[in-house]
Design a protein that fits this description.
Layout (H helix, E strand, L loop, with lengths): L4 E3 L2 H11 L13 E3 L1 H8 L14 H16 L10 H4 L3 H11 L5 E2 H8 L3 H13 L3 E4 L6 E4 L4 H15 L1 H13 L5 E5 L1 H4 L8 E7 L5 H19 L3 E7 H9 L5 H7 L1 E5 L2 H5 L4
Parallel strand pairs: 7-8
Antiparallel strand pairs: 1-2, 3-5, 4-5, 6-7, 6-9
Helix pairs in contact: 1-3, 3-7, 5-6, 6-7, 9-11
């Protein structure tokens, strides 16, 4: 059954009374007031006989409480944290996800837009935004059905910590690929990252699969030795376990035509980071 209104909890009522001065202390305190749920608000503004807009089922009491907590925390000046502040800023994955989404948005976005960009449901996104707003990491503009959020780029932690950190994260894979290309590309015909890293689906336990295509069999041993020589530094600097696969160009073409794994996957999903392009490699470019 859908609830259209709920009784306010005593602490929420007291907070709202303090914030907005809706009654004088002691007046009408015998009964706690009611508040509309999200469905109740839709019903109150709907024309008679008009169906309500469809909504996903959920905990409407919690949803209302979340909005009320947002009002109370921001009107009362937010939270003041000076020590171990990253424990609060990066306390959950959802915090990091919305910060990533807001990084490139100078104009900001609505909560629903950020939820879609971050890959989470609207309520979880709103919870993260509310907590970051309380830390003054983001700003909220209230108006209409949706609230609008922007990154507080004047905040010292945002300017000197969050934005540089997210920037390093974004360029991290490119740094790894550049490092590999600088040390191996001149030794091979083509250098290709494949597997879960190429698909952007890697886990902490995943290897960094790297295909080294050489001109002929006489170059296989040297390419393998070069890859194994840099493997310890790759692990130390980037936390990646290198898994090299060395093939001649002739063998690569043969396996491509016969659709032999993993070469077929390399052709379809691989990321060339040095040497011949995939098309040039498969077409047997000299």
């Amino acid at each position: 059954m859908i609830n259209f209104y709920i009784k306010l909890a005593a602490d929420k009522y007291a907070s709202l009374r303090h914030q907005f001065g809706i009654i004088t202390r002691g007046e009408h305190s015998k009964y706690l007031p009611s508040a509309f749920t999200e469905h109740g608000m839709q019903r109150s503004f709907s024309a008679p006989g008009k169906r309500l807009a469809s909504e996903e089922p959920g905990n409407y009491i919690g949803y209302i409480n979340l909005h009320m907590e947002s009002i109370v925390s921001t009107r009362s000046g937010g939270r003041m944290v000076f020590h171990h502040v990253w424990d609060h800023v990066f306390s959950t994955w959802s915090h990091v996800a919305v910060l990533r989404a807001l990084m490139d948005s100078a104009q900001g976005a609505t909560g629903r837009e950020l939820a879609r960009q971050s890959g989470m449901n609207h309520r979880a996104c709103l919870q993260a935004l509310t907590e970051l707003e309380a830390l003054s990491i983001i700003h909220r503009v209230r108006g209409g059905r949706d609230h609008f959020f922007t990154l507080n780029r004047d905040h010292v932690l945002v300017e000197q910590g969050i934005l540089p950190l997210l920037s390093v994260e974004r360029s991290f894979s490119r740094s790894v690929f550049t490092y590999l290309a600088d040390r191996l590309a001149k030794r091979v015909r083509s250098l290709i990252v494949f597997g879960s890293v190429a698909r952007k689906e890697e886990l902490p336990s995943s290897d960094l699969d790297l295909c080294l295509v050489v001109r002929n069999e006489n170059e296989i041993a040297a390419a393998e030795a070069a890859a194994h020589a840099i493997a310890p530094e790759v692990l130390n600097r980037f936390g990646a376990k290198l898994a090299p696969l060395v093939l001649t160009q002739k063998e690569f073409i043969r396996r491509t035509k016969r659709k032999i794994p993993p070469v077929q996957d390399i052709v379809n999903e691989g990321v060339v980071i040095g040497g011949l392009s995939m098309k040039g490699l498969v077409n047997g470019k000299a």
